[in-house]
Amino acid sequence: MANLWNLIRGISISDLGKRRFLFHFYIEMDIVQVIQGNPWTFINHLLMFHRLEKGEDHLKVSLCFVDFWVQVHDIPVVFYNEQLARQFETFLDIFLDYDSKALAFGLKKILWHKKRTALFLHQYFYARFQYKRLTLFCFICGKLGY
């Protein structure tokens, strides 16, 4: 992983058990680079990061949210705006940024492939969603991580 991330000072990784690992970065710049490059996978499994605070119990950290780039397709170009993007927040969980089209969503929630959306009172269209670097996703039931 360190080679893939091109870290300046490197990293040490410790197995904490219960499918959790401690990644120790030696400089702030390296951890910022890795977190901003989310989502990451290893052997087709999603890696979820959480910055531990001093005294925080690593086993009590809830690892059920991850940031994803979401591309929305089949929207008429004249309606590309932040207001329309924020309408999708209700079923994608948390809207982070319109410019980067990044959203965070809970992994226990069903991911949408297509959603009917209203533009005007009686005018609808179907928006299609594509998730960047999404792994182990079942398109039948819409859940992550089998």
Structure description:
- The protein has helices at 2-5, 28-36, 82-87, 89-92; strands spanning 11-17, 20-25, 40-42, 45-47, 65-73, 94-97, 102-106, 114-120, 123-131.
- It is of the alpha+beta class and 146 residues long.
- The longest helix has 9 residues, at 28-36.
- The protein starts with a helix and ends in a 15-residue tail after the last strand.
- This is DUF4283 domain-containing protein.
- It comes from Gossypium stocksii.
- Pfam families: DUF4283.
Beginning-to-end CA distance, first to last residue:
23 Å
Spans of at least 5 consecutive residues with low confidence: none
Question: How would you spell out the order of helices and strands?
Answer: HEEHEEEHHEEEE
> Which structural class should the secondary elements be placed in?
alpha+beta
The overall number of domains is: 2
Strand elements, count: 9
Q: What number is the mean pLDDT? A: 75
User: What's the helical proportion of residues?
Assistant: 10-25%
Q: How many helix segments?
A: 4
> What would you report as the Rg, rounded to the nearest angstrom?
18 Å
Sheet-strand content, in percent, reads 35-45%
Biggest sheet record: 5 strands, antiparallel
Strand order of the largest sheet: 6-7-5-9-8
InterPro entries: At4g02000-like, DUF4283
Protein name: DUF4283 domain-containing protein
Pfam families: DUF4283 (PF14111)
Organism: Gossypium stocksii
